[in-house]
Write a structure and sequence with these properties.
Blueprint: E1 16-20, E2 34-43, E3 50-53, E4 58-64
Antiparallel strand pairs: 1-2, 1-4, 2-3, 3-4
InterPro entries: DUF2196
Pfam families: DUF2196 (PF09962)
Protein name: DUF2196 domain-containing protein
Length: about 70
């Protein structure tokens, strides 16, 4: 599995993703990612695509979850 973040073009509404909020340290390993379904995609950002989850949380996508 690669550590490359997805681009905004790869995301769709309803996709389950891991995000970190803007005030979290993206490089920190002791923060738990927030997992949820994409509601709104705002666009690409150096920290990862910025999205709003259906829960209302806004953050930067770190990974797409492919849960079976």
């Amino acid at each position: 599995m690669s550590n490359e973040r997805p681009t905004a073009e790869e995301l769709r509404q309803g996709v389950t993703v891991e995000i970190v909020q803007g005030d979290q340290d993206v490089e920190s390993t002791d923060t738990e990612p927030i997992i949820g379904e994409v509601g709104t995609i705002y666009g690409d950002d150096p920290q990862g695509p910025e999205v709003e989850l259906k829960s209302g949380v806004v953050g930067h996508v770190q990974a797409i979850r492919h849960d079976e």
